[in-house]
Amino acid sequence: MNEYEYYPNGDWHYDPTADRWAVRMARWVKSIAPHNHPIAVHNGPVEPPFAERFRRDPQAIDVILFQCWGTRDKDDAWLAAGIEDQIKKSLDGWPGPAIFAEYGYERNPALKLSFPPFEFLDQNHTRRGAWRGAFSGLCVMNGFENTWGPYMILDEDQSGVHQLSLLKHFFTEIVPFQILQPSFDLIIENEEYKPGHKPLCLGSDDRKQIAVYLPVGGEVSLNIKDIKKYNARWFNPRKGDLTPARSGIVKERVTFVKKDNENEPSDWVLVLEAKE
Length: 276
Hints:
- This protein has helices at residues 16-32, 50-53, 83-90, 123-134, 159-174; strands at residues 40-42, 63-67, 98-102, 139-140, 181-182, 187-188, 200-203, 209-214, 218-222, 230-235, 242-244, 247-250, 253-258, 268-274.
- By secondary structure, the chain is α+β, with helices and mostly antiparallel strands.
- The chain has 2 domains: 16-174; 179-274, Sandwich (Immunoglobulin-like), CATH 2.60.40.
- The chain has a 6-stranded antiparallel β-sheet, with no helix packed on it. It has a 4-stranded parallel β-sheet with strand order 1-2-3-4, covered by helices on one side.
- Helix 4 (123-134) runs parallel beside helix 5.
- The longest helix has 17 residues, at 16-32.
- 36% of the residues are buried.
């Protein structure tokens, strides 16, 4: 049920009537469909949380295809900030699966602007949005202006496509996505983080595999007692290469630092793997 809260008059807002309609439609489809396909909703408004919206019949909707664009203005679209915070709020208490299904179609500047909200969504927004979603524990999909209805240039990949392929490479060939879960306790938070700059962390239950996403590089301190038990590497989400990472002790904390040009900060992924 794509953007099920979008009303014919263009008035797009939260209304519990839409939730009741979604539940009735889900139950109706399940009563006549023979194949047990999952029933999903793709949202417009991101709140209130979905667990609250569908609390009267939590088994009617099987999957949330979550939509949240993050920052998308001229000065902050590159950062795609706020996505992980909204995922946490919107999916709080939700008992079923969810997919991060849209966070803004990447703009193709060679085409006439088809939809004003796309204007500043470049490959940086595509890449950072995907990593923010994955580090929230969700599978990720997104669109491109080339795949947008008015154009449908399906034989020409935009820049972000390759960077999404590197995300897939990372979670299938370097650190298995299926063994990871958000692990906020492994990061020692810095109160000075600017909005959208805070690192995100995933870890396996046994803590043998740990990954930290730094949206703008910089410094991250980890709540790990014996860092010598790990091999540490930096993964470049823009190019896909791996390089050694070295830790240091800052204020008695195990700290990693990755700094680039401060005028154009780059994102990096820290990979820690327990030694055999």
